[in-house]
Design goal:
The chain is α/β, with parallel strands linked by helices and 337 residues long. Among the domains are: 86 residues, no CATH class; 71 residues, no CATH class. Helix content is 40%, strand content 13%. The strands form 4 sheets. Strands 3, 4, 5 and 6 form a 4-stranded antiparallel β-sheet that branches. Strands 1-2 form a two-stranded antiparallel ribbon. Helix 4 crosses helix 5 and helix 4 packs across helix 6.
């Protein structure tokens, strides 16, 4: 069906050149460049960031999620102004000392508020409160693609001011300094999950963890990444848990040269513009199926993370059978994609 659409020029996104053995296909990319900032946003008046946060707090009550680290043993309520100041100070990388100078608040009070109320658990709860409120708006689904919530994830590098556990050297991004990589999962322009990793770690190890550990009400259907989000197991793992994986390949033509099928390549006609390069190894999948099920069950029960499994499989010898079977299943899903 795909082949027929391409040859009959029914697929407007693919262009075929040449004849016979010299026949080649390429993707048709849009030529018109979209404006970086649509004119609509330039008409909106600018407002103060503090006013915006207070408005969001009134609509979502996200400030209520910042509970004291000692929980019920503390009866005093936090100062909303200090909470917002701490959030902005850390979110903009301004720091508490600079925030105290520009806001007129006490550095001691800001530092105490940050230590008592800002931690990963409360920040995640606050983000979920805002995210869920946005998802309830009718405008949220205007960004759906083919009636599906189609998020993407990518990493951003940030230089660290202190030497943290994840901080690593990366001359490309930080020169002689250290930094971290923030992998963020964004759906319909809403950040729904994030994870801080070292710049030495591969982003593809954390794609499934970002999706599966998402605690917001936004439940994605299909997920995209750039080339850094692809490896030899992500297609299969995401397929197992009901996610569609749609990476953005830099050279799609080269990827189609490694397709696999359930018949020998000679079974397919030479007239096929796109055809499998080899036959699927069904035997190794059948033999290793119990081990594969155990690996998937461990991920489902959150007994381990995707990053841990990928590292362990990668550390084995090349002839490890479970790794081969997982790679074969991944190749099937990739070929279908």
């Amino acid at each position: 069906m795909v082949r027929c659409h391409v040859i009959d020029a029914a697929n407007e996104h693919i262009k075929v050149k040449g004849r016979g053995e010299k026949r080649r296909w390429t993707l048709v990319y849009p030529t018109a460049e979209e404006p970086v900032t649509p004119p609509f946003y330039s008409r909106l008046p600018g407002i103060n960031i503090a006013d915006l946060l207070r408005f969001v707090g009134g609509r979502t009550s996200f400030l209520d999620t910042f509970t004291h680290v000692l929980e019920r043993h503390v009866k005093t309520e936090p100062d909303p102004r200090e909470l917002l100041a701490c959030v902005v100070a850390f979110g903009t990388n301004m720091g508490l000392w600079k925030m105290a100078e520009v806001s007129g608040m006490s550095y001691t009070a800001l530092s105490l508020t940050a230590r008592n109320y800002l931690r990963p658990e409360t920040l995640r709860a606050a983000n979920d409160a805002i995210t869920n409120a946005i998802a309830a708006l009718s405008a949220f689904h205007l960004y759906d693609i083919h009636d599906e919530i189609h998020p993407s994830s990518d990493g951003q590098r940030f230089e660290t001011q202190i030497d943290t556990f994840n901080a690593r050297h990366s001359p490309k991004y930080f020169g002689l300094e250290k930094g971290v990589s923030a992998c963020t999962l964004v759906a319909n322009n809403v950040p729904i999950n994030a994870k801080i990793i070292g710049t030495h770690e591969h982003e593809s190890y954390f794609v499934f963890d970002l999706l599966y550990n998402n605690t917001s009400d936004i439940k994605p259907n299909r997920h995209s990444t750039d080339m850094h989000g692809t490896n030899q197991v992500n297609f299969w793992i995401l397929h197992t848990f009901g996610y569609g994986f749609a990476p953005r390949y830099k050279d799609l033509h080269k990827k189609t040269e490694k397709l696999i099928g359930f018949e020998h390549p000679n079974h397919y006609s030479n007239d096929f513009l796109i055809k499998p390069a080899r036959k699927v190894n069904e035997e190794i999948i059948a033999i290793e199926w119990p081990n594969i099920q155990r690996v998937m069950a461990s991920l489902a029960q959150k007994d381990t993370s995707q990053a841990t499994i990928v590292r362990k499989l990668s550390s084995y010898l090349r002839q490890n059978q479970t790794k081969k079977a997982l790679r074969e299943l991944d190749n099937i899903c990739r070929s279908i994609f």
